[in-house]
Amino acid sequence: MDDMLGEWATEVAEAELSSPLPRRWAHTQGVAERAIEVRQVLGADAGLLLAAATLHDVGYAPRLAATGFHPLDGARFLRDEHGADERLVRLVANHSFALLEAEERGLRKDLATEFPLLEEPLLVDALVYCDMTTTPDGDRTTAQDRIAEIRSRYGDDSVVGRFIRRAAPEIFASVERVEAALTAQPR
Predict the structure, then answer these.
(1) Interacting residues of 13 by C-beta distance below 8 A, sequence separation 6+
(2) Distance between CA atoms of 101 and 10, rounded to whole angstroms?
(3) Biggest alpha carbon–alpha carbon distance for the chain
(4) What is the distance between the alpha carbons of residues 130 and 32, in angstroms, rounded to a whole number?
(5) Which of 51, 63, 133, 177 has the greatest number of beta carbons closer than 10 A?
(6) How far apart are CA 30 and CA 130, in angstroms?
C-alpha cells in the first residue's frame, strides 16, 4: 500500500510541477529523498511521509494557485480532485509551519478550519526536516542555510520573509528533534 501511495504521489507531483516549475520539481525530488533517508524513525508512517514530502509543494502549480498560498491550494487540490487521505492532506496543508505564513496572509482561519494540525509531532517534524534541509535545486543543506536562502530570495519585508523569521526557531527545533531521533536509531 505504501509503495502505491508513493508512486501515486510522484505521478501527481510530476504531472503538476515538472514542466511548468522544473526547479520546484527538483526541490520536491530532493525532499522525497530526505523522506526515504528518515523512514526508519517513522515505522508505519514512512509511506505517508514520503507521499507528503512528494506533494508538499504541489500547490505552487500554476493551474492550482487559487489563493496564491501553496499549502492551502495544494491541500484543496489533493482533497477535492483526488480524494486523498485526510492525514496526507493535513500534512501538506500545514507543512513547515504554514499556519504562521497563513496568518501573515490573512488565511489562518481558512487553513486551520479546513485542515487542522495533525497531533503527530514526529511525523510533522519529519516533514519539516525534509523540506528545510533541501535546497531549491534538491540538494542537501542545513536548516540555517535554507532559512538564509529563503530570506535572501524573498526579502525580509515580504510576507514570506516575515513568516520565515517567525518560523525559524520552530523549524530549527523540529530539525533538531528529527536529528536526535535518527541518532538514537540502532545502526
Answers:
(1) 25, 28, 54, 55, 57, 58
(2) 26
(3) 46
(4) 7
(5) 51
(6) 8
